[in-house]
Fold this protein.
Amino acid sequence: MSSSGTLERRPPPDRTAPGKAASGPPALDRPGPKRAGGIRLGRRRPGAKPGQLSVGFAIPAILVGLTFTLGPIIVIGVFSFLSQPETGGGVVYQFSTEAYRHFLFQEDFLGNTHLDLRYLRSFGLSGLQALVTTVVCIGLAFPIALWMTTKTPRAQNLLVLVVTIPFWTNLLVRTYAWILLLSDRGTANSVLEMIGLEPRQLLYNSGATLVGLIYTFLPFAILPIYSSLAGFDFSLAEAAYDLGARKLGVVRRIIWPAAGGGVMSAVALCFVPAFGSFVQPVLLGGGKVLMVGNLIAAQYGEARNWPFGAALSVIILILTLLGAFGLLRWAKRSSQKVSLAI
Amino acid sequence: MGAVSVAQETVIATAAPTSASASETGLSVAGAYKTFRSAEGGEVHALDGVSLDIELGEFYVLLGPSGCGKTTLLRAIAGLEPLDGGEIYLGDERIDILPPHKRPVNTVFQSYALFPHLSVWENIAFGLRMEKAPQAVIAERVAEMLALVQLSEVGGRRPSQLSGGQQQRVALARALAKQPKVLLLDEPLSALDLKLRRGMQSELKRIQRETGITFVFVTHDQEEALSMGDRIAVFADGRPAQIGTPEDIYERPVSRFVADFIGDTNFIRAPLTVRAGTCFGGIGGVDVPVGVDPGNGQTGTATLAIRPENIFLTDPDQAELRGKLVELTYMGTDLRCSVELPDGQRLRVRVPPPFGQTHLEPGGDVGVAIGAGQAKVVAE
């Protein structure tokens, strides 16, 4: 076995020892890809750097990566063009564009098709909610991030840690915590009672959904804005003061443009997941309003229309990609650094 | 100590005549204090009772080692650093109580601090936009400023596309665009290489002459200070150690610190004696006249400052004061010698060309002569 031969050869070979020289396979004595040992794939090609392995080693990782990233998307894409079975969930392998038609049109009992805007309204509502979430998150995150950058490096590290603490806990658990806070006999109402105000219904409305969304996505707004401001040269702010700008002018004309890339990253990181959010509208909003997230979930659940659920997902994916493309175009034009991930 | 009182008198003497006229129109700082807390919790007196008067249209240099308070004073004038005590006047108006945007003062920052997201043109226009100047005025003034700093072709570029020297000039144009009464420059040339710096020095002098604006220029480079300043304030430990023209500072330093900081200086400990109305210092057993008024009764041992170029090497056989040549270095423009005196103190001497008039050889004896009036008593 060549691998065991390699192991035996690890101590410096003693070629003069009688019998030993003949025991190893002769191929191993050739000057050549010694460090590759017995593995054929690792043979160094001419021009390769020392320590560089051949592409072959990357194949398993690439396969795993592709399977887990593109795989589900391909499945969704294929499903969206298949047909719905007569009964139950799943798909029938028969090409159809019915799922996409179903998004905008509806067929009545007489067989006439007419425009149906209910699903589009769901998209609009979700978009509006995501927009409000994004605007509020950035409005809160910008001053927080700016404040963080004025602290000592040690304090800044600590503050970044504090911002990321929510990531350590499951989203569902944190959302249930909000239920406890906002419920009829929850903390918020107790406080209201203590200061002499009427307790009120805080949970199961769009306000509660918004609170949950803002809470969830605030760190995703703070972190990119903070990182774009972390290296900010405050002598620029001083120069603006010196040239006659007031405090708000300095923020608007000097600091905000410096944070531009981070703000755009924050828009992407808040808006996209908030648009397709599922947990907050269902748990905090009571699922009373049909949002994109629970609309899709319903297609795989109660409605048993997998192709339509897949089609909705594909539509969101395309909208997102278009948005990301536009964002990157903008970034390139204004030479801002935008990253679409943390 | 007597020498200290001499020093203080000189400072007051140089500052006094200007203060009366300058307070009408110039910039004056009165008793400015600023204390920082250091990382170890100690107190650092960045400004320790600074008072000075800067005349209108003057090129005024604040010179000193790092941490001497010169930059803090500049930032206090700009309004970027509030004072703990003291007042700053521009003409008759007290400006230290005004926010930065209300002071007719602009700054050229050491790092230039150009706005990276704006073009050169927009950078220069920034201050005018802040005061809501009409578009036509802005366009005219920016073009004028670009021409002044000879950058008319690069107005559309971003600062990052310019060389260091060009960025420096944009920073200058941006600060001048608002036509400030006083322009503050915080070590503006320190990031440039030597050749570029020389060019910018004469450029700055030209611009200052053309605009007639009062320049307050901070530097730690004594050569830059001497070549550019109309007057120089040498800072040490949060206050001016001496204020005067470049000539005053170089020829008549009041303290060891000033003499040491500006140029190359020999310091010799010498006993003082008074004979026939003149004060002498004993160097190697030879009495050399020193420029101190014997009337103030100074006696004992004092420190004499002598510039290397004011010491001459002569024939040892005919000289009163002799020494041993211990080191000889050829520098092209001059010979740098080190001479050991009989009492063991060493003198650095600069011999100008043509060389070879005196036979110089390491280890040999040389005669030493000190230029008339060139040995000066300085405060320790």
User: Anything to note?
Assistant: The interface with chain B takes residues 233, 235-236, 238-246, 249, 253-254, 257-258, 260, 334 of chain A (CB under 8 Å). Chain A has 15 helices and two strands. Residues 176 and 315 of chain A are 30 Å apart (CA to CA).
